[in-house]
Amino acid sequence: MERTEVVVVGGGQAGLAMSHCLSERSVDHVVLERGRVGERWRSERWDSLRLLTPNWQSRLPGWRYRGDDPDGYMTMPEVVGFIEGYARASRAPVETGTTVLGVERTPGGYRVATDRGGYEADDVVVATGHCDEPLVPALGARLPGDVLQLVPTRYRNPGQLPEGGVLVVGASASGVQLADEIHASGRPVTLAVGRHLRLPRTYRGRDILWWLDAMGILDDTEEDVYDIDVSREQPSFQLVGRPDHATLDLPRLQERGVRLVGRAAGVEGGAVFFDDDLVARTAAADVKLASLQARIDAFVTAAGWEGRVGEAEPFVPFLWPAPAPEAIDLRAEGIRTVLWATGFRRSYPWLSVPVLDERGEIRHRGGITPEPGLYVIGLPFLRRRKSAFIDGVGDDAAALAEHIAARRARAVA
């Protein structure tokens, strides 16, 4: 049984940022990673995927993008290289190929069991991230057995799909990208639309995330929002990272021939049923987008930036989606694949500490759990709206490392 001050579970960007900040404070620690550094970027992303955030926004403590395309969007191999470079530069004490089997309380702190031995530590930081297990609704169990069901972490490219139509469920970032790519391969695609946040890739000559960054929206804290739980449950931005900086949203998908339907609500006898809510969903997204554009325009005026950025662009609503069926017989329409782009849930079967709520999520306040010495990082809106971004984990890691260091100082005093 090895002894260390802190065990960090997870070797992605959150765990490495945590490691860097602990090292800055001379806190002894180890980072345990079940696979390779940045494993999920390597093995759980489709071939054509690029970051949704521009390269300049790839910022970690002591590390940032150093390439010659700051306004571009990294491919997955480039992201892996970026994270690997960070691990090397920060000399992170990462133990790869080490699966955590259990974390439990002891009188002096925590005991962490792995498939390669155990650790005793004063503190544990859970840095396994928010993209843990793909969430598949219960209605998936009622689909016909001859329909291929996939989740984004298992999808690689259209070539792995059987011939025939595809139903993509979920219209956030992953859903719209996959619907577009699969449709471009020649397969008929139906996209089931739930809650979504429609955004243009650029506005007034700048990337939309440049505006959110400049205006401080991504730095919003719990005190800046009406309901933190609602904010944490927001769908991901409906964005795509492409060399041409193109916008991808529902109006464009419909123009290209993707059929839009309402939220998937049930399955019976080989038929999938949809809510009659497509117009309401798209209208709600339009209201939020119009509000954001107006907020940006007001910000430009207040900052005296007129003439320094592009002209204000008219808001173009998605006036009326095409009539949508309320049910589809999969066999009759030749739909042989259902792709669930319905988000993720977290799973901690190895965590034997009473910090999980009724949904299985870790209870915390800014990453600090009710159990002294147990922390979490990398979750949506942990401390700020950008907490789940590569650009957001650094500030959270610094705050948690400071809390750990102060806790240790009190224990020694």
Summary tags:
413 residues; alpha/beta; FAD/NAD(P)-binding domain; 9 helices; 26% helix
Walk me through the structure:
By secondary structure, the protein is α/β, with parallel strands linked by helices. The chain folds into 2 domains: 2-132 and 346-412, FAD/NAD(P)-binding domain; 135-340, 3-Layer(bba) Sandwich (FAD/NAD(P)-binding domain). It is 26% helix and 22% strand. The chain is built from 9 helices and 24 strands. It has helices at 13-24, 39-43, 76-89, 173-184, 208-214, 228-232, 250-256, 278-303, 393-412; strands spanning 2-9, 29-32, 59-60, 63-64, 94-95, 100-106, 109-114, 117-126, 133-134, 148-150, 165-169, 189-192, 197-198, 202-203, 206-207, 237-238, 259-261, 264-268, 271-274, 327-329, 335-340, 344-345, 351-352, 374-376. The strands form 7 sheets. Strands 1, 2, 5, 6, 7, 8, 23 and 24 form an 8-stranded mixed beta sheet that branches. It has a 5-stranded parallel beta sheet with strand order 10-21-11-12-17, with helices on one face. Strands 18-19-20 form a 3-stranded antiparallel beta sheet, with no helix packed on it. It is globular and about 70 Å long. The two termini are 27 Å apart. The mean pLDDT is 95.
In short:
The protein has helices at residues 13-24, 39-43, 76-89, 173-184, 208-214, 228-232, 250-256, 278-303, 393-412; strands spanning 2-9, 29-32, 59-60, 63-64, 94-95, 100-106, 109-114, 117-126, 133-134, 148-150, 165-169, 189-192, 197-198, 202-203, 206-207, 237-238, 259-261, 264-268, 271-274, 327-329, 335-340, 344-345, 351-352, 374-376. It is an alpha/beta fold. Helix 1 (13-24) crosses helix 9 (393-412).
